[in-house]
Write a structure and sequence with these properties.
Its EC number is 4.2.1.51. By secondary structure, this protein is α/β, with parallel strands linked by helices. It has helices at 12-18, 34-42, 62-69, 106-111, 113-119, 131-140, 154-159, 210-219, 253-265, 291-306; strands spanning 2-6, 27-31, 48-55, 59-60, 75-83, 87-90, 101-104, 124-127, 149-152, 163-167, 176-183, 195-202, 225-232, 240-247, 268-276. Helix 8 runs antiparallel to helix 9. The protein is elongated. The structure holds 3-phenylpyruvic acid.
Length: 311
């Protein structure tokens, strides 16, 4: 079994890959970008990809959301939560006052924006493909590097031969990043009672109430959303698709009814998978929306249709 992840070694994604459920014993191969990881799975060069999808401070990882929403379909099999802390690291001999450009993954730059603004007010933020890639580029560059310091995990800094200038430089202690394990389309694993379902849906037309209609499919079935993000369709200003995570599993009656509702009201729905929640939390449906309520309602309807006396 081959698993690719956003590398190089030392990324937070590597930590997530090491904890990915159902991948014990897999050969773990770093790749340069989220697109490269997902395409390796599409092409059959890897069985699974582990990629970041969401952060508790910065929200969705747009490169992942866009890559999952377009191109050949993929399927999310599991999620992994990893706490993230950053150091600011530089080549030996660099002082904090020498740092004019800071390189890292855009989510790391965003999560340390306040610290950098306070301690390095004149520094430029330079995006890199990952935190460990920023450390590697800085440590490996013979002469001029594209930045003077990198924001990364401490082991990545040390592996690249850098020195730590400051620890715990994130603005929010306790930030958590969510990663997903992605494979080629397959039947979902059985429901566990603590699951999430991910879909991408677009609106029928640009009119008032269209988004409300989409959301109603979940609300009327008592389904809580754990993430919703709009992403531009890229065709014209004002056209968006919605990337949504909801509580529950496609095999749960209330979730299956909500997805069928989406299929009725949205021109395009991409089902990306149902998988166990990493936090183990179970949904608390409002009265009348438990799966047993939906099952009982279907049985009642079956009675009506068969002519059996129904109450
Ligand atoms: O670059 C990394 O180390 C990643 O794994 C992506 C990332 C970047 C910032 C916060 C969490 C994950």
């Amino acid at each position: 079994m081959r698993l690719v992840y956003l590398g190089p070694p030392g990324t937070f994604t590597e930590v997530a890959a090491g904890r990915a459920p159902g991948t014990a014993g897999a050969e773990r191969v770093p790749v340069a970008s989220v697109d490269a990881a997902l395409n390796a799975v599409r092409e059959g060069e890897a069985d699974f990809a582990v990629v970041p999808i969401e952060n508790s401070v910065e929200g969705g990882v747009t490169s992942t959301l866009d890559a999952l929403g377009a191109g050949r379909p993929l399927s999310i099999r599991a999620e992994v939560l990893v706490p993230v802390t950053f150091v600011l690291a530089a080549r030996p001999g660099t002082a904090l006052a020498d740092v004019r450009r800071v390189g890292s993954h855009p989510h790391a730059l965003a999560q340390c924006r306040g610290w950098v603004a306070e301690h390095l007010p004149a520094a430029l933020a330079v995006p890199a493909l990952s935190t460990a890639a920023a450390a590697q580029v800085l440590g490996g560059a013979a002469g001029e590097a594209p930045y003077d310091a990198a924001l990364c995990a401490e082991p990545a800094a040390l592996a690249a031969g850098l020195e730590v200038l400051a620890r715990d430089v994130a603005d929010n202690a306790g930030a958590v990043t969510r990663f997903v394990v992605v494979g080629r389309p397959a039947a979902p694993p059985p429901p566990t009672g603590s699951d999430k379902t991910t879909v991408v849906a677009s609106l029928a037309e640009d009119r008032s109430g269209a988004l409300l209609e989409l959301l109603e499919q979940f609300a009327t079935r008592g389904i809580n959303l754990t993430r919703i993000e709009s992403r531009p369709q890229g065709t014209e200003l004002g056209r968006y698709t919605f990337s949504i995570d909801c509580e529950g599993h496609v095999a749960d009656p209330r979730v299956s009814e909500a997805l069928m509702g989406l299929h009725r009201v949205c021109p395009r729905v991409r089902y990306l998978g149902s998988y166990p929640r990493a936090d183990g939390l179970a949904p608390v449906p409002p009265p009348g929306t438990a799966d047993a309520d939906f099952t009982a309602a279907r049985a009642w309807l079956a009675d009506l249709l068969s002519g059996r006396p129904a109450t």
